[in-house]
Amino acid sequence: MKTNYRSAVHDAIADAMRADERVVLLGEDVGRYGGTYAVSKGMLEEFGPERIRDTPISELGFVGIGVGAALNGLRPIVEVMTVNFSLLALDQIVNTASAMRHMSNGQFSVPVVIRMATGAGRQLAAQHSHSLENWYAHIPGITVLAPATVADAYGMLRTAMADPDPVVIFEHVGLYNLSADVEELVPTDISTAAVRRTGADVTLIAYGGCIPKALDAAERLAAAGIDCEVIDLRVLRPLDDATIMASVRKTHRVVVVDEAWQTGSLAAEVSARIVEQAFYELDAPIARVCTVEVPIPYAKHLEQAALPQPEKIVAAVHGLFGDDPR
Amino acid sequence: MIEFTMPALGADMDEGMLNEWMVKPGDTVTRGQIVAVVETTKAAVEIECWHDGVVRELLVPVGQTAVGTPLATLLEPGEQPGPSLPKDQPVAADTLPAAPTSAPAPHPTPLAAPIGHRLWVSPVARRAAASLGVDLKTLSGTGPQGAVTLHDVEHAAATAHHEKPKPPPPHQQPVSAESKSAAEKARERGTAMRVSIAAAMSRSKREIPHYYLADEIILDTALNWLTEQNAGRSITERILPAVLQLKAVGLAARKFPEFNGFWRDEGFAPASGQHVGVAISLRGGGLVAPAIHDVSEKTLTELMADLTDLVARARAGSLRSSEMSDPTITLTNLGDKGVDSVFGVIYPPQVAIVGFGKPAQRVVVVDGGIRVATTVHASLAADHRASDGARGALFLAEINRLLQQPRDL
User: Is the CB of residue A308 less than 8 Å from the CB of residue A213?
Assistant: First the structure.
């Protein structure tokens, strides 16, 4: 079955709504307009305005409604247009949703799923192109997911709906049109990283929108005789250390690819864990390929130049073998 | 290509341990630039490079001792690097230790000589070397920044299987600088300094036939002039009497070159400039006598600044290689310690040392009358191989004459 990432997210929401009448979808333009990224097209007609709720432009308000609804027995899915708008709702997510189980001594859980688009590459300029996954991955009490494949776009959302605690899902804007042949869309786990390509010489660790770039770089490096393993983190909190370390023990070399800015990034966290847990397995310094530390440019050539690209990954890998590609 | 050799840092400096490289391959260096720090028995000496060029290769790793050996190679400005650098081809490392089937890459033969830079070894390579019994010092790295990688270790282990085991090269055990506390290092340096002073002074008294001359110099003119000069200066800019003595010694040494230079096997070689070594006692015991360069060419103000700087750095244990290696004559002043006179021991291969005691009011006879004047006892200890007493007397008299005409200093 040929399908794409956008349809997979749509199907996951629709299937969840059909399976459980407590599931509701809220957000800006999710109803009449069909979703900013056209994920919820047709749902208003199928499920009605009670369950598909267009909200005012107030992230603090409607994310808070989602948290409150979850506390009161519903299973809400809240769509935030892009990650930058979620900053307006940080208090609801970081201060309320994530802490409620702890602060109520386990009496209350907040089974809310908050989805948002993330990342750059579509000329949405400095205010709508962030990768702030690491901000959320910092917070105990929430699970942070970054599906990078069509199968995960469906499967991780379905599993997230069954989670009794808050889950934040990042959908990279560059992935919505990604298509793939899938046998059947099924729930997938939300606890492990995945090896997307096996290799012996170097481990490329990435997530979300950087996975296709890492796989592209791996193809190019294969032509140069360097065999890359590509790990898709998938779950950004909690990180699956075991899968990462198993790969490091095999390849002894690591390049972490992260569309976030390098300073304080998830790439930094992953690097630190490798040094803590597998230092004596390393045969070269850990390299990072991150976004240039500037506000994301609007101009297409500048935007592309700022982001991680297969060429930069290839150069970083060569650097681990003592070649100076410059 | 230029071979940059570690300068000899003085007669008593038998060895120094390379503490730090301040440059790396590819860096441009200019004449006089400080390129490395060497820990000697006396101080952490900043090593200057006297060539212009581009660093090609560092030959001595940090932690290794070296004196008089090549430290680095430099490319002259405009020179292209040759093809001889051992640079391996990128090899997708086969991580299985028992994999002799991997294509034999053109590996450099194991080096018995010191590796061309500080020995960098990747963590996994270090571990593998320990378990495979590979001596890392015999390897040259092919990894990032020349680091020894797992592949290098495994290749060496595989090669060693086919060769007769050789006795390990007679490497000096590098002293681990990091593992010692500062106090320990200071204590060791103090002990080591006594050893090196003992060696140099024994050599001096064994080899150099000293002769000694002394004179009493009236300082009233010089001190009065200095008081006038200093009246117009701030406290920090004031010139000390020691600076007048320093300048007088420099000028006299220029006029009498047989006291300014080195006695070597082939005889006496006069030096071209007057670089006066100033004996500085260190707070923890011991002393150093680093040079103030071109004393005869400098103004009193410049010399005062140089002296202040030199004393501070000597006591902080931070001197430059040229200061250690360049003195052409030594000046020792024990006046502040309260002694009337000091007769020095020559620091080989120099041939003279001038000593000054305490300036004090003494009874002197001037023009047939008895007067009280401020005087200082100056002495000369000189190498009889290089000069005779008559010339020595003129040399000491010249210092006296200069101190009577402070305006000319």
Answer: yes
